[in-house]
Amino acid sequence: MLQPVPTLSKTPEGYRHLDVAPICGALGAELTGVDLSTDLSDDVMAEIHRALNDYCVIFFRDQELTPDQQKAFGLRFGTLNIHPIYEPLEGHPEILQVVKEADAMNNIGDSWHSDATFLPEPPMGSILYAREVPPFGGDTLFANLYLAYEMLTDGMRRMLSGMNAVHSDAFLVQASAERNSTRSTKLKDGVHEAKETLHPVIRTHPDTGRKCLYINEPFTDRFEGMSREESKPLLDYLLAHIKKPEFTCRFRWQVGSMAFWDNRCTHHYALNDYHGHRREMHRVTVNGDRPY
Ligand code: SIN
Question: 139: left (phi > 0), else alpha (psi -120 to 50), else beta?
Fold first, then answer.
């Protein structure tokens, strides 16, 4: 790294309802002083939203939430996404049960990604709540896509600025039988045809106006107007750049922890390092806008 990485995480100032404690220089803050099962005032919600904009991913501890209360919290930020490819939690189409049974080989989310960028309007954020955690491992890592963009050279930023990339769900739907044989969270039956959509490689965040690098490993297939082979070297370079440790943070889960990540300016990665133990999370995903 030629230049020092700027620290995103500013000292929290001006929060009146919440205690905000950054966990890393790159992104992430733990918020205390709030019970998410209650009907929070607009002022508190505005501060939570502000913390999400300031820190890209926010964490809460010791929350006791029913599925309906988790959905109610998500609904304060927008309409809820029903995952087009994964089976939902029974009776709750808006909740994705991210589970790995003790005897399962693989988990879901074990690559650096933003959720569902194969959709024309990908989610604005995801709210993941821990119901059962292994005695060790199962942490989630997050990466800051603003920093990834800002730490590119002027020349690279200029080159990428007019480019679009093709995003696709082929990675999930074309290997569904194989994926279902080793994972506990199952893909829906009969979704086999991959769909493609175009997104800008450099995305402007609608709330902050900041630019971020908007490609990811499982869903970005190639650059517009280029073949996969032509795209691969540049894609590989950019994907390796995004996962530099200096752009990341890591969260250790406990039962009752919740993470809310801004899906427009972060990647996440779910570690699969707890073989023989069960992990169960509930994810509520908030719909977003078409990237520009
Ligand atoms: C995901 O939503 O990609 C899963 C994250 C996790 O299980 O930590």
Answer: beta
